[in-house]
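Continuing from the previous page...

OK, I double-checked the sequence for Nitroreductase family deazaflavin-dependent oxidoreductase against my notes and this is the correct one:
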Amino acid sequence: MSIQRRLARFNKIVANRIIGRPMARMPGFGALFHTGRRSGRLYRIPVKVFRRDGVYVLPMPYGPDCDWVRNVVAAGGCELRTHGRRVKLADPHVIIDERQHDIPAHIRFVLLRLGIKHFMVLNPV
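Thanks. Re-ran it with the corrected sequence; updated structure tokens here:
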């Protein structure tokens, strides 16, 4: 198993449960609620989030094959709690943006250093 997959697994099992709630309340972050494809279980994960031209953009540090991405795409949407309110989001699509032109400079700097190039774009309902 690659280091990236091990880190993703650790975050899913341990870190998200410990730091997920406080992190989701921090500026620029949120809590994403999605339903499992097979289990039907409701999951909550902390995510980095920003808005651009009326849509919500979520960086995908583990790429498009991680569970939360596949769950949101399969369900056709999710809910996001950010800035103290819940927003229903729909029409998820994954984009690859290696140059990240539309991303704020302070976020772009970090994402480029981490090699993150996949993003999920969602529309508010």
